[in-house]
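User: I'm writing a tutorial on reading structure tokens. Could you give me a worked example: one chain, its sequence, then its tokens, then a sentence or two explaining what the tokens reveal?
Assistant: Sure. Here is the example chain.
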Amino acid sequence: MLLASSSLANAAEKPLMNCGPFLISSSNDGFAHINHTRPQSQKITFLKAADDFNNIKYQWMLPDPKIGRWLGLDYIKRDGKAILNVEVVRMNMDEPRQFWTYDCVRVK
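And here are its predicted structure tokens:
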């Protein structure tokens, strides 16, 4: 049953942006989905004025089953141009930082 409902959730997704290897989609649950996965948390900040979706920042925490670690993602859109910053959450401060930035392109 869980498989069926997760398939239904994926069917309701609408792809919006491609940012490197990450596909960002809208969904019916109020969260953006990243690569068809609902993030654990989502924070939205308008950078200039309320409801200005051309200047917005989304922050997500997402478990990555491929590497077994959490990813911190910051989607930043300024004046209509978007980037995605991705960082692997470190287990301790002695680990090297793993950080990537991707340009985002609207899915047509």
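What the tokens reveal: The first helix runs from residue 2 to 11. Residues 22 and 96 are 22 Å apart (CA to CA).
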